[in-house]
Amino acid sequence: MGQNDASSVRRVAFLGLGVMGGPMAGHLAGAGFDVTVYNRTATKANTWCETHPGHAAGTPAEAAEGADVVFACVGRDEDLREVTLGPDGAFATLGRGAVFVDHTTVSAAIARELDAAARERGAGFVDAPVSGGQSGAESGRLAVMAGGSAADFERVKPVIDAYAARVVRVGEAGSGQLTKMVNQICIAGLVQALSEGVDFAQRAGLDIDRVLEAIGGGAAQSWQMDNRVRTMAQGEFDFGFAVDWMRKDLEICLAEARRNGARLPVTALVDQFYGAVQQRGGGRDDTSSLVRLLAEP
Question: Is 44 a known active-site residue?
């Protein structure tokens, strides 16, 4: 692609202002970039502009026109395809030398598809799913796993640093999405194990705070343990990463596993458990609500 000097990035666009995209775009504006935002619900983009310096666009194509880097954080493969390749999609105006950065958790297949489409236009593409949830987006402490060419990555990394604590290039296009699948596979089994541990401790009459103090510095320690055990024990789930989105991600993981031959027995089982949570009406609850299936069988 063209110039790789990160200091050349001035104008950026952000497509999708949900619980993740809104704060991420806000960090970009706070870092001094000229930000244009687009959201399918226009009122959300207008509201964002009321609290941040920036401009609202009526279509993804309008947002992307003249931008050095275009970011997206939408929902599913079909949503991403719509804002990129659909009518009035961003790729219609994506300039030569610009880079499109996708933060959506989607399939590796669409990442490769968009990488090829961007290169046909003389632009770059980086698939860059994130981990850290809403709190990480708000605090600017996300972990970003990226796929794409080294040149594209080096150009956009200093921009992504505005809302990330860690940004790692894993490999070529699609590698970021595959790494996010690894992340979700690991989390799924871990949250189920924590749910069983919390339920066991409560049935045994143990003080959860003391248990956490005792084992939190040992081999069982994890981010999920540090941040979710107490709320799980208290039955608080109206925050965090929703079950509906976790099931979407696990569907992607299981589909990829069918393609590459990986065996994911624990992931498949936990996916079924999350399905049971949804059937109980808990689709918008945090993923740690798995414990309810044990506490309230």
Answer: no
